[in-house]
Description:
Layout: H1 2-86, H2 98-104, E1 126-129, E2 132-135, H3 156-168, H4 172-185, H5 192-205, H6 209-223, H7 229-242, H8 246-259, H9 265-278
Antiparallel strand pairs: 1-2
Helix pairs in contact: 1-2, 1-5, 3-4, 4-5, 5-6, 5-7, 6-7, 7-8, 7-9, 8-9
Amino acid sequence: MTRFGxxxxxxxxxxxxxxxxxxxxxxxxxxxxxxxxxVEIRLMEMENRFRTVTGQYEEAMYRLTQxxxxxxxxxxxxxxxxxxxxxxxxxxxxxxxxxxQAAADEPQAEPIPxxxxxxxxxxxxALLVDGExxxxxxxxxxxxTHPEQYLEGDTPEEQFRAAFFLxxxxxxxxxxxxxxxxxxxxxxxxxxxxxxxxxxxxxxAQGNYTEAARILIDAYDKHADSDKxxxxxxxxxxxxxxxxxxxxxxxxxxELDRRFPNVNSAVKEGKVDGQKKAGCT
Length: 281
């Protein structure tokens, strides 16, 4: 009996073991299938998120490209306008090209100055002092003493943009006042180098090359390492040549060559033209 009983036990085990192993294998397979399904679902979710991010990136790059084109068109218009004013060929507002007019209708991001403000604040005829209106003649009002009176906009960026469009419209007297006020009110703002540069250019456009040269010399002394350094030197040289100070003009052009060897084509052409006019060797 003992031997038979042992045999039965082994037979039972021999039959049950494969069944148990098979059931275990099926359970593991089921778990693997569930895990694989979860992984596939997560991969699909990640792929959808990736497509969304890719779409947002492509849209952002497109908008950046459009803003860059708008900036090039706008600055090109202003540059052309100032050059024409300096040469005495035209007067009045800057004529817009077809491309720049279309670009002006597009919303823009800071710091690109491409959306013209509805109006620029004119100087008040009287000032409010201690709750009473006093004649402006009784108070010396300048962009340096009352800069807020010469600026339009609540933020430095808005104020800079308003001054920029005064230049674009050919309102150089108001532009000069606005830039002087901006420099006074925001001496440490990143736009200061741009403001000083356009201030000098505005004086040059009026034919006041002495003041333009003075401003640009100071601008280069303080902002030589800014993104306007090369353009400041270029127009300093141009202003000095207009004043008949050809030797000093050639020094400015030479400094431009040495310090900024990789300038854009517009600056390079302006430098070559200035060197010819000044008789630089």
